[in-house]
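Methods — Computational structure assignment.
A single polypeptide chain was analysed. Its primary sequence is given first, followed by the predicted tertiary structure written as structure tokens.
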Amino acid sequence: MKFFSYILVYRRLLLIVFTLLILLPLPLILRSKVASAYFKDFHLLLIGVICLATSIEKWNLHKRIALRMVMMVGVNPAWLSLGFMSSTAFLSMWLSNTSTAAMVMPIVEAVAQQVISAEAEVEATQMTYFSGSTNQALEIDESINGQEANERKEKTKPVPGYSNDAGKISSKMELEKNSGTNSGNKYRTKKDHMMCKLMCLCIAYSSTIGGLTTITGTSTNLIFAEHFNMRYPDCQCINFGSWFIMSFPAAIVILLLSWIWLQWFFLGFNFKEMFQCGKPPTAKQKACAAFIKQEYQKLGPIRYQEIVTLVLFIVMALLWFSRDPGFVSGWSALFSECFLTWGFWKPVLLAGMAWYPGFATDSTVALLIGLLFFLIPAKRLTKTTPTGETVAFDYSPLITWKEFQSFMPWDIAILVGGGFALADGCEESGLSKWIGNKLSPLGSLPVWLIILISSLLVTSLTEVASNPATITLLLPILSPLAEAIHVNPLYILLPSTLCTSFAFLLPVANPPNAIVFSYGHLKVMDMVKAGLGVNIVGVAVVMLGMFTWIVPMFDLHTYPSWAPPISNETTP
């Protein structure tokens, strides 16, 4: 009876464990099972990247990097905005765009308010200096306000034996009332308001632009890589290194042109103020620099946990770059060369390579490094014995599973898995081939026009739909289109993937836009007008890259051997 009582107590745990054990052989037996679409290479790569992002944000390494980069560029408004854009873009290369914008915006908001208050203080000092004396009416008003404040304090003194909640509530209501009356007057001048708008959009747009640079920078890049490697397994040309070499120049150019456009749109582009050689910094610039330095000093010296996170971050990036650089053999080639010489493992590895060619992928690195974040100790947990001795009984790792779960975007993982299942269904049912045949008349158009039309279509659609949903919907359509018109699929898929991130027009277009819009400095039309210019810049730079440095990287002018051969019926 005692045995059955234990079973009753732990019935939920036993149900979960035995259900998993019973269903475990199914993925090996039924290889066509739909559930396999929900756990692909993309999901493993995402898990490893989120482990890194969790540790970076937990130990405030991201804040240290952002403040340090801003301190390097100076406090001139134009250079300050460029400094924030650069640091935000760099962080967005490794963290999610949303978390980057959410982390940097409080710093930007505090810096902007510091600049405004410093300028007000300087003007008040100048007015006092020129008037030669203080304002008597102001002194009388201040004394009256001081007396009223003292009277309120007397009224709300706590009575012995009673709670003072009423006083706290009335004081809170007065504070909210006062802040509400002053909220409409938080900008001294129009220039201050324009500066706040500029800073907000710099963060929103640079967090999106930075995500273009690495294949792990945003979910749309990962979705493209998984879809492409599944549809064209013989290509083996899309990896972390090749993507970085392709997109980094484009991201740099888009970032600089966006900075120039936003600077001119909101504050004007005054070269004399930007390059004020030999001139001492103004009072507000000194105040801004002092605030940023103070925030940096609050972090204290770099800690052991930050050093370990930084080392793992660098190791992960180096392993990604060196896995398959393209111009030389990477370390991934060592697995197929060395392991296959071991007689016992050779049949097993050959079978695995048949199902998973190039089994050492970017997700291998991400998952191994991500596992280390759960194993490396961050600090020791100690307790005091009855004799007064302090002993260690356990340790706390760099991140815990609960912290990882709070950062992991499970909704994106499920959405992308559904997209992969949809793509598999389109391929197996012949729908993709049918769509490609219907779109084959587009082959009569010039290639540059087809690329432009697809890029503008994607850019327009992503303004009203989520980026992952947009790319998941269009990839199964654009791939057969490229095959039907006998064009290298990368010629159409690469610009379309990059343009999926160009959601700059509306607050609801992507999470970074919504985050900066929530601070109350922007109107919808501000974002529409400024974002339209950034959209044009982004599409133009991507088009330029597709016909310059990207062409020789992937030999885009020839139809590749790794793409499906085109029959006479589908060739235009």
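Note: DSSP finds 27 helices and two strands in the chain.
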